[in-house]
Design goal:
Structural class: alpha+beta
Largest sheet: 7 strands, antiparallel
Distance between the termini: 50 Å
Radius of gyration: 27 Å
Oligomer: single chain
Strand order of the largest sheet: 21-22-23-24-27-25-26
Strand content: 25-35%
Number of strands: 28
Shape: globular
Helix content: 25-40%
Number of helices: 15
């Protein structure tokens, strides 16, 4: 991989022959695991400005209609997560001269608080081409990481690393976009946000204003435009079916660009059933109850998934973009016979995408019901794909892939010019994406929403075999026995296998919870800078031998802290917890009374502890005893309260499988109980919102 320094540039074609479609990954970390940022992409013309607001892609506008730019969101890595962007360089319009890749922090938080700030660029096969690290971040709240630009019909990358103390607004203004950032201290902007939300409830979409590009040098004009935009933001948004009052001015107002028609999501309250009794079952498009064997489950699951991918473009594109596929006309096939020596092979499926007369093809191998992938089978498909010029082999199973830990080992023939990428997709990830679309983000067509609903029902059916990670592996029983008998020795390779299974389980919990909540839920991996995944897992395995505990942390966007999960295998207990900071103003007694009020519906056995400055152990007790006497949480001495720790301990099953009384179901149930019974009642962090605004007429 080519390492870049600030200001350097490189020709992408010199790094890879497959640089027409690239994946940009932006990553960072913090010791606490709470640091986060939002990625953005700007398409610029030859004048260094966006053509219009549609050229600005961020969390409220994550994808181009033609698929050339797609913000794919966070993906798990060895250090927690990274945000990924798929760019189809071959399909960008000729008038796009540069692609700016940036990130910003909410409420002007400093990038200097983050560590390991890095950009990585991979080619269409997933092979990393270049990397660029930013080591001098300080007070900046936004950063331009780099840009991809045209030179003589070729694409190059330049490492920029330019920071902005003025945040997303300052960065975007330089490129001709006006941004109205939310500020929790500004009541007028809060009212504007409420007005926009109310307008959305009335089926009126927030407006995107066209802007007049602001020259970089003219900072005074930029400030005036921002002030006028803020003034506009305080005006309630009218309904679309009501006339807009004319402006008493001779200047022509900026043209208001409306967002697309409101997308279709599942209704929050289902309609009453017309069935005579509860025993009647509704007709399903994809029935699963009649499946008898694993082979039937694999064939049905593959056909159902691939068919829905072709019929619901938003869903199909979301899955294939991760694998480097372009946006285009997609066709899928099942049970295709391909020549391979004396014995033809039949992969479970084939995906083909056509874009501008070019084909992108991937072979699909599916496993259901916890069946493992077979290395020799995947190796044969990799060889076939290489010979036939296919781009990828995609494996689909209940297992969850981990960074630095291969599900199957395959060999690549370095003499072959054509490279084939091997990608893995978990059924839990498929379910996650379907949930996000039909329950939170929506699709453009009611029939598409129904198809996704039927797919989701099939995937979640007990007999489909598509239940995600459901077995802690063969090392689980001997490791648990070794912990109980105190015979487990440090360095036992089986402990690393258990740690990997635990990590897979936690990633699946994040996928499931994120799909249900419609928000970012990612695991937090605390490790020293430069620690590789295997070394980190070996360290966790060593701790498992000593204390018999598996530990994990989960960050849920919008919550006031990190959710901790500790499985004590020696005691058969699982503890979930969260630490919340004390308010900056007010009186300690008011703090604890407010906390008790927030936890009025929390479980009575919830444990609450006051956190004090230094290593001093603060007062603690169960919610049942503290409710009548909240003052018991106050320290007797002068120690300063820094926060509160809330924890809940429950018994957890010991079996390795996905049975009702097993360990996996126990972890799922404990996390769900703590989140719904405790975390949702706490004062949430404000949601991140930004609106594109234009200058007043």
């Amino acid at each position: 991989m080519h390492e870049m320094v600030k200001g350097a540039n490189v020709d992408l074609a010199a790094l890879s022959e497959n640089a027409g479609s690239v994946m940009v990954s932006l990553s960072w970390s913090t010791p606490s695991g709470e640091g986060d940022a939002d990625v953005s992409v700007l398409l610029l013309g030859a004048d260094g400005k966006v053509r219009d607001n549609a050229d600005f892609y961020f969390y409220n506008n994550p994808a181009a209609p033609d698929g050339t730019v797609q913000l794919l969101g966070p993906a798990p890595t060895e250090n927690g997560s990274e945000d990924r962007i798929r760019l189809d360089l071959t399909a960008l319009p000729d008038e796009v001269d540069r692609i700016v890749i940036a990130a910003s922090r909410h409420q002007r938080a400093r990038f200097g608080e983050l560590e390991n700030i890095r950009l990585t660029l991979a080619d269409g096969s997933g092979e990393a081409m270049l990397g660029f690290s930013i080591a001098d971040a300080d007070s900046e709240s936004a950063f331009v990481f780099g840009e991809i630009y045209r030179r003589a019909d070729a694409w190059k990358f330049r490492a920029i690393g330019q920071g902005y103390d003025s945040g997303l607004a300052g960065l975007a203004t330089d490129y001709g976009i006006g941004i109205d950032e939310d500020d929790d201290q500004d009541g007028r902007q809060d009212e504007a946000a409420d007005a926009l939300d109310a307008a959305d409830d009335r089926n009126a979409e927030p407006a995107i204003e066209s802007v007049v590009p602001t020259p970089r040098a003219d900072k005074a004009v930029a400030a005036q435009a921002a002030a006028r935009a803020a003034a506009l933001a305080s005006v309630p948004v009218p309904r679309t079916d009501e006339p807009v009052p004319a402006e008493p001015t001779v200047a022509a107002p900026a043209r208001r660009l409306r967002t697309a028609k409101k997308k279709v999501t599942l209704p929050k309250a289902p309609k009453p059933s017309l069935a005579e009794n509860d025993a009647w079952r509704g007709a399903r498009l994809f029935p699963a109850s009649s499946l008898k064997s694993d082979r039937e489950r694999e064939v049905r699951a593959t056909s159902v998934l691939l068919a829905v991918m072709t019929q619901v473009p938003e869903f199909g594109r979301r899955l294939t973009a991760t694998f480097g596929a372009p946006a285009g006309r997609m066709e899928t096939f099942t049970e295709v016979t391909l020549p391979h020596g004396d014995t033809p092979k039949r992969p479970d499926g084939v995906i083909r995408v056509e874009r501008a007369g070019k084909l992108w093809t991937a072979l699909v191998e599916t496993k259901t019901n916890g069946n493992p992938l077979k290395a020799e089978q995947i190796q044969a498909y990799m060889d076939i794909a290489a010979r036939r010029g296919y781009e990828a082999v995609i494996t689909l199973s209940n297992d969850v892939a981990l960074e630095g830990s291969s599900l199957v080992e395959v060999k690549t023939d370095g003499r072959r010019k054509h490279k084939v990428a091997l990608w893995h997709l978990s059924w839990a990830e498929v379910t996650h994406q379907a949930q996000l679309l039909i329950r939170h983000e929506g699709v453009r067509n009611e029939a598409h929403a129904w198809l996704l609903q039927e797919l989701l029902h099939y995937l979640q059916h007990d007999n489909s075999g598509c239940h995600g990670f459901q077995n802690m592996g063969p090392a689980w029983v001997p490791v648990r026995n070794g912990i109980d008998e105190e015979t487990l020795s440090p360095g036992d390779p089986r402990t690393v296998q258990v740690v990997e299974s635990w990590e897979r389980l936690i990633r699946q919990v994040c996928l499931r919870l994120g799909g249900e909540l419609g928000t970012k839920v990612v695991p937090v991996q605390r490790a020293k800078r430069g620690t590789d995944p295997q070394s980190r897992r070996a360290e966790l395995a060593g701790r498992l031998c000593v204390d018999g505990q598996l530990r994990a942390e989960i960050r849920i966007e919008g919550t006031p802290g990190i959710l901790g999960v500790v499985a004590d295998l020696r005691m058969g207990r699982l503890r979930t917890s969260i630490e919340i900071a004390a308010p900056e103003q007010g009186y300690p007694l008011s703090w604890v009374k407010k906390l008790m009020k927030q936890l009025s519906e929390a479980p009575a056995d919830l444990h609450v502890q006051t956190l004090l400055e230094g290593e001093t152990v603060g007062p603690r007790g169960t919610l049942e005893k503290l409710r009548p006497e909240p003052g018991d949480l106050l320290p007797k001495g002068p120690e300063r309260i820094t926060g509160f720790r809330l924890s809940l301990s429950k018994g957890v099953g010991s079996t390795r499988g996905n049975a009702e009384t097993g360990f996996i179901r126990g972890v799922d149930a404990a996390v769900d109980l703590f989140h719904s019974g405790v975390v949702t009642h706490l004062e949430q962090r404000p949601a991140q919102r930004a609106r594109v605004a234009g200058p007043a007429a």
